[in-house]
Design the sequence.
């Protein structure tokens, strides 16, 4: 597949950086979905409902990118899309799906509440849905990857400092494991790159199944 392109359907520079660890940077093109409108998770209370919705979001992103490439549909290559959320439980064991904080100035209050009420002294799940499609054959592979993340009990001493850095903006769950948000994390069970936004362990298995060579 030397002339093939791997189309990354994402605006996230972190996803591209991770993907470049597995495949040649010269073979990657970035083509984000045209629409930023996504299905929400309102009213979903169980893990099966949440994971099904998450996979559907990644699949619809994939469809969006493929539609943009339709004039070149005869070209060989793959389209990769993904979506990451944080799923945390409150004191009553109710699940809360946390995407990116709001874009307006309320984001600090929202993220502050997440750390105090859902993160501190507990574990939560980072879940990523991956969708990979072969443009020639139409064959599609899908995967849900979950990692469990534990957060320190005493978030308060560092919380206002962290919010002042603006790092939580644009991050699923309001923190970046690969950045300053790591000061709150005490342990990760499962894929660390999944928490960042792209589970490389899954892609190591998926890419060769569609004939794409790894580095």
Sequence:
């Amino acid at each position: 597949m030397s002339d093939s392109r791997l189309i990354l359907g994402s605006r996230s520079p972190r996803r591209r950086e991770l993907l470049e660890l597995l495949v040649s940077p010269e073979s990657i093109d970035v083509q984000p979905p045209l629409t930023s409108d996504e299905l929400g998770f309102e009213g979903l209370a169980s893990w099966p409902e949440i994971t099904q919705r998450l996979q559907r979001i990644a699949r619809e992103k994939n469809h969006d990118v493929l539609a943009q490439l339709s004039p070149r549909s005869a070209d060989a290559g793959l389209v990769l899309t993904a979506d990451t959320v944080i799923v945390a439980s409150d004191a009553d064991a109710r699940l809360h799906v946390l995407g990116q904080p709001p874009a307006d100035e309320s984001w600090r209050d929202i993220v502050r509440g997440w750390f105090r009420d859902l993160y501190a002294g507990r574990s939560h799940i980072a879940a990523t849905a991956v969708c990979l499609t072969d443009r020639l054959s139409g064959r599609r592979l899908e995967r849900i990857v979950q990692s469990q993340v534990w957060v320190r009990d005493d978030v308060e001493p560092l919380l206002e400092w962290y919010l002042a850095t603006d790092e939580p903006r644009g991050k699923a769950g309001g923190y970046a494991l690969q950045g300053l948000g790591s000061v709150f994390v005490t342990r990760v069970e499962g894929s660390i790159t999944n928490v960042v936004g792209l589970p490389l362990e899954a892609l190591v298995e998926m890419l060769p199944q569609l004939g794409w060579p790894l580095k």
Q: What stands out?
A: The mean pLDDT is 93. The helical segments are 13-19, 47-68, 107-119, 156-164, 192-196, 200-209. The CA atoms of residues 92 and 118 lie 11 Å apart. The beta strands are 5-8, 28-30, 77-89, 95-98, 123-134, 140-151, 185-189.
